[in-house]
Predict the structure of Glycoside transferase family protein.
Amino acid sequence: MDLSVIIPIYNEEENIPALYERLRGVLDPMQLPGGYEFIFINDGSRDQSLALIQTLATRDERVRYINFSRNFGHQIAVTAGLDCTRGEAVAIIDADLQDPPELIPQLYATLREGYEVVYAKRRSRQGESAAKKLTAKLFYRLLANITHISIPVDTGDFRVISRKVVEALRRMPEQSKFIRGQISWIGYRQTYLEYDRAERAGGETGYTYRKMMKLALDGITAFSDFPLKVATISGFLVSGVAFTVMLYTLYSRFVTRDYEPGWASLMISILFLGGVQLIAVGIIGEYIARLNANVRQRPLYIVSDTNLPPAASAPGAG
Ligand code: UDP
Ligand code: MG
């Protein structure tokens, strides 16, 4: 098997037929001697997506699918796909045609030139709200600044990776997945191609602000201790200021005896200190929550049904 294409699906009934046609349109002419396969992961869709995939699977034996028991999220869906790929190279692509399938042959050709990862970097993005673009831009810049591994900016999970990288990813058991960060962490020779990101072909985004927030926090907490350090440093700074003010208060009380019975300063310092403490506790809480998830060691996902042979399906799932 030369190439496996992983496609996470969450309510994509409007896009699946067109996606399948376009993928075949670019993969068939590649004339891969070992062949290719599609791996659809139905992430708890509430529409006709599963039925569409199953129909494709009866007509085309290269179509394999995993049906989750509920919505586990995009990153987990991709992880499940990685768990059962057989290809020497693996492509990850969104189902909504925002990532052009026509780029896959180029990504694949570049991989064969001697890279282990070729990711697709967004030169521009169309049809997305200004708020989404701005938050995405800020997030990628922030992440680049506070992590010590270089996670490429303006890049999603659309990429082609080699078997080596898939095996390395499968050895990373963390529960809060941020796959693009994990791939950067793995290393090897990586490069990128640029493309213009299209509008969503049909349907609506499955990434609510809540899911984006979770992805952003997962990415930051998995690859950076910076927020924890900020909590510590601001704690020291605030204590330093408080200590100086305390000295000054004692000085004016006992030496110059020039003081006001001031409740204003009291209130301000109590409120300020309380705020800083709450922020610090909150940040620590974010990390502890993730620690806790890892300690529980639950399987990442539960498979409801699949047309994959049992040996190839994921460890610990189902
Ligand atoms: N997706 C998923 N589970 C989810 C949300 C999204 O598998 O909970 C899939 C979705 O079907 C698509 C890809 O992840 O193939 C990217 O999602 P989407 O296009 O909604 O995100 P956006 O492009 O708006 O960031
Ligand atoms: Mg999309």
Strands lie at 3-9, 36-42, 63-68, 89-92, 117-125, 155-162, 190-197, 303-306. The CA atoms of residues 66 and 306 lie 5 Å apart. Residues 94, 96, 98, 200, 205 surround magnesium ion (ligand 2) (CB under 6 Å). Residues 225-296 form one domain.
